[in-house]
Amino acid sequence: NDAPSGAAGSPFNQSVAVVVGGDKSAFYHCGFYSAHNTLFDYKGRHFYESCYIQGSIDFIYGQAQSLFK
């Protein structure tokens, strides 16, 4: 994640660790780490098996249909 620093309070200065927008995407034995906005399940159908997702605020969000195993 190499997003530039922005002004505090601006909604346009946030970066996401991972954005998944493809249909039928699958992840196996992966790690996703971020303090804020870790995994954005944008759209599509996704499968996560044996994945570690770490964050403190909005760590998994979006409109996708996802299965976590």
TrEMBL record:
Start and end residues of each Pectinesterase catalytic domain? 7-68
Q: Which UniProt keywords apply?
A: Aspartyl esterase, Hydrolase
Keyword ATP-binding among record annotations: no
GO terms for MF: pectinesterase activity
Concerning InterPro entries, the annotation shows: Pectin_lyas_fold (IPR012334), Pectin_lyase_fold/virulence (IPR011050), Pectinesterase_cat (IPR000070)
Name its pathway: Glycan metabolism; pectin degradation; 2-dehydro-3-deoxy-D-gluconate from pectin: step 1/5
Which GO BP terms sit in this record? cell wall modification; pectin catabolic process
- Membrane-crossing ranges are none
Source organism, top-level taxon: Eukaryota
Stated family: Belongs to the pectinesterase family.
Q: Which PANTHER family does its entry note? A: ACYL-COA THIOESTER HYDROLASE YBHC-RELATED, PECTINESTERASE 67-RELATED
Q: What name does this protein carry?
A: pectinesterase
Q: Which organism is it from?
A: Nymphaea colorata (pocket water lily)
High-level lineage: Eukaryota, Viridiplantae, Streptophyta, Embryophyta, Tracheophyta
